[in-house]
Write a structure and sequence with these properties.
CATH superfamily of the largest domain: Metallo-dependent phosphatases
Strand order of the largest sheet: 1-2-5-3-4-6-19-18-17-7-8-9-10
Structural class: alpha/beta
Radius of gyration: 33 Å
Number of domains: 2
Distance between the termini: 92 Å
Strand content: 15-25%
Shape: elongated
Largest sheet: 13 strands, mixed
Number of strands: 19
Length: about 550
C-alpha cells in the first residue's frame, strides 16, 4: 500500500466518495421523513410540557390566592396567616392600628403575611389583670404560631395541587395531562420550599422595618438592648410582642414606651434642619417616645445665618435634653452664638463635651456659603479649594484628638469630606450636609483599611426635609433622623434606628433597625437603610 500522503495524490478517496454518494443520497431521502417526524414530535412534546407547566403554575397561584390562608389564636389575638406569590419573599407582620413590621426573613417566590386582626377583649382583660396568665399566654404564643404555620403549609400545598389539576382538567380534559399538572405543581412546591429554607435568615428579627405612626414606633420595635443573634430571638421577640401589645390595647390610650434601660445611652442624631418649623415637633416626639438622653445636631440649622433666623433656634431649650451642635455651611457665627445661648446647648468648634459619660468632640464647617446661586459660590467654581478646606478642618480636629488624654467616643463634622483625616482616630464620626443617609467605614488617606476599620462614618439625611429646597422635587423630601444606642460601659455603638417621616401631617414613619456588630473590621450588619428619596443637591 502506498504511503498515507499518496492517497490524495492517487485520488483513491475521491473515487470512493463518488461511488458512495448515490447510495448515501438515496438513504438520506428515505430517512429524512422519519427524522423530521421525530423532531416535530419532540418539539410538540416540549411545547405540551411547557403549556402544562404554565397551566400548573397559574392554577397554583389561583389556588393560593383563593385559599392560601388560615386563622388561629395567638395568645389573646385572632390572627390570619397567609402565603402569597412574590418575587422577593420576606415576612410582614400587621399590627393594626399600630402599623406593620417587615422582615427580610427569606427569599423566593413565597411571601408570608401574619395579620393580627383582633383581640378577644375578655381574654385580654383577664390576662392584663393577671401577670402570671399574661406570661403563660405570651410563652405559648410560639407554639400557637408553629401550629398555625404547619396548618398553613399543608393547606397551601393542598390548594396548590388542586388548583393546578382543576385548571388542567378544565383546559385539557385529559387525565394524563391533569396528572402531569399535579406532578409539576408538587415539583414547584418542593423547589419553593428548598429556596425558602436555603435562604432563611433567623437574624432578620433583629433588624425589622417598621411602618406606621411615629408615636408607636419604639413600643412596637422595642429596646435596642433586646438584641440576640440566635434563633432563640424569635421566641423572645414574639413573647415580648404579644405581651406588650396586649397591654397597649387594654390601655385604650397613647402607647406607653418601655422604661429606659439605664445601661443604654440613647442619642438622637439630627442635621440640616434648614428652618423647617415642622421638624421641631418631630424631634420632640422622638425625644419623648424614645427616651432620648442627648441630641447631636451636625449643622445647617438655618438657611442664611441672619438675625431674623435666631428665633428659630429658641426651640432647642424646649427639648429639655442636652443639645450638642456643630456649625454647618449655612450657619453663621451669629447662628452659632444664638445656639450657644440656649441653656441646654453645647457648641463644639474644636472642643470636647462629656454628657452621660459619652465624650464628644467636633468642629464647625470652615465655609459659610448660604447663597449657592452667587457667582463666588457657584457649584464647581472652586471645588478643589472647598474640598481642601474641609480636609484641613478635619485635620485640625484629628490633631487636637491626638493631644487629648482619652480618645473621644464620637467626632462631629458637617461635611463628610472633613471626616477623612479622622480615620482611625475615633470609633464614630457623625455628619450631614448631603441630605441623604450614608453609612460606611472610613479609609485611611493612603487607601488602606487597617486602622480605619475602627472608624464608622454616619451621614444623616435632612431632618428638615431640606427646608424649602425639599419642595423642589416631584415629592417632598421626607424628614430624616436617627436614634443611636450606646453601651454605657464601653460607649460603643450597639445599634441605630433610621427614621424617615413623611405623609399627611408628617405622622407616617418608616423605621429601620440596624445592628452594629462587635467585629471592628466589619461594616454594620444591616440591609441598606431606606433613606429619603433623592432630593435637591445639598447646599
Amino acid at each position: 500500500m502506498p504511503p498515507y500522503e499518496d492517497l490524495f495524490s492517487h485520488g483513491w478517496l475521491t473515487a470512493a466518495r463518488r461511488r458512495l454518494d448515490p447510495g448515501l443520497r438515496v438513504l438520506s431521502r428515505r430517512l429524512a421523513p422519519g427524522v423530521r417526524a421525530t423532531r416535530h414530535r419532540e418539539v410538540r412534546r416540549a411545547g405540551r410540557l411547557l403549556g402544562i407547566l404554565a397551566v400548573a403554575a397559574v392554577g397554583m397561584i389561583l389556588g393560593v390566592l383563593v385559599a392560601g390562608r388560615v386563622y388561629a389564636d395567638v395568645g389573646p389575638f385572632h390572627a390570619q396567616f397567609a402565603i402569597t406569590p412574590a418575587l422577593d419573599g420576606g415576612t410582614d407582620v400587621g399590627l393594626p392600628p399600630l402599623g406593620s413590621l417587615h422582615l427580610a426573613s427569606h427569599s423566593g417566590p413565597a411571601h408570608l403575611s401574619i395579620q393580627l386582626t383582633a383581640l378577644d377583649q375578655q381574654r385580654t382583660k383577664a390576662l392584663v389583670t393577671n401577670p402570671n396568665a399574661l406570661a403563660r399566654a405570651s410563652g405559648g404564643a410560639v407554639e400557637d404560631v408553629r401550629n398555625a404555620m404547619m396548618r398553613l403549609a399543608f393547606q397551601v400545598a393542598g390548594v396548590s395541587v388542586l388548583g393546578a389539576m382543576a385548571l388542567a382538567a378544565l383546559l385539557y380534559r385529559s387525565m394524563r395531562r391533569v396528572a402531569t399538572a399535579g406532578g409539576l405543581s408538587l415539583a414547584i412546591l418542593a423547589g419553593t420550599a428548598l429556596i425558602s429554607l436555603a435562604t432563611f435568615r433567623p437574624s432578620a428579627i433583629e433588624e425589622p422595618r417598621y411602618e406606621g405612626l411615629l408615636i408607636n414606633a419604639p413600643a412596637v420595635v422595642g429596646d435596642a438592648r433586646r438584641i440576640a443573634g440566635q434563633y432563640e430571638a424569635y421566641r423572645l421577640e414574639l413573647q415580648r410582642l404579644v405581651g406588650n401589645v396586649g397591654k397597649l390595647y387594654d390601655t385604650m390610650s397613647t402607647l406607653p414606651v418601655y422604661e429606659p434601660d439605664n445601661s443604654t445611652i440613647r442619642v438622637l442624631h439630627i442635621s440640616d434642619m434648614h428652618l423647617n418649623p415642622a421638624a421641631w415637633s418631630v424631634v420632640r416626639t422622638v425625644v419623648q417616645q424614645f427616651n432620648i438622653n442627648l441630641i447631636i445636631d451636625t449643622g445647617d440649622i438655618t438657611d442664611w445665618g441672619s438675625e431674623p433666623e435666631d428665633s428659630y433656634v429658641s426651640s432647642i431649650a424646649a427639648l429639655k435634653v442636652p443639645y450638642v451642635f456643630v456649625r454647618g455651611n449655612h450657619d453663621s457665627a451669629r447662628t452659632q452664638a444664638a445656639v450657644a445661648k440656649q441653656p441646654n446647648a453645647k457648641v463644639l468648634d474644636g472642643g470636647v463635651a462629656t454628657i452621660d459619660g459619652l465624650t464628644i468632640t467636633g468642629i464647625g464647617d470652615p465655609e459659610f456659603t448660604p447663597d449657592k446661586s452667587s457667582a463666588n459660590n457657584a457649584p464647581g467654581a472652586s471645588a478643589d479649594k472647598g474640598i481642601q478646606q474641609q480636609i484641613n478642618s478635619g485635620q485640625l480636629l484629628a490633631n487636637s484628638i491626638l493631644e487629648m488624654q482619652h480618645t473621644p467616643d464620637v467626632a462631629l463634622v458637617h461635611d463628610p469630606t472633613a471626616a477623612m483625616p479622622l480615620a482611625g482616630r475615633v470609633p464614630l464620626v457623625l455628619s450631614g450636609h448631603l441630605h441623604k443617609r450614608e453609612v460606611r467605614r472610613l479609609d485611611n488617606p493612603d487607601g488602606t483599611k487597617s486602622d480605619a476599620a475602627r472608624t464608622l462614618l454616619m451621614v444623616e439625611g435632612s431632618t428638615g426635609g431640606a427646608g424649602l429646597r425639599g419642595l423642589e422635587g416631584k415629592d417632598p423630601l421626607p424628614l430624616a433622623l436617627s436614634v443611636l444606642y450606646f453601651d454605657q460601659k464601653k460607649h460603643a455603638l450597639q445599634a441605630y434606628d433610621d427614621i424617615s417621616v413623611g405623609g399627611t401631617g408628617q405622622t407616617e414613619v418608616t423605621l429601620q433597625r440596624h445592628i452594629v456588630k462587635e467585629d471592628k473590621g466589619a461594616a454594620p450588619s444591616a440591609s441598606p437603610s431606606p433613606g429619603p428619596s433623592p432630593g435637591p443637591s445639598p447646599s
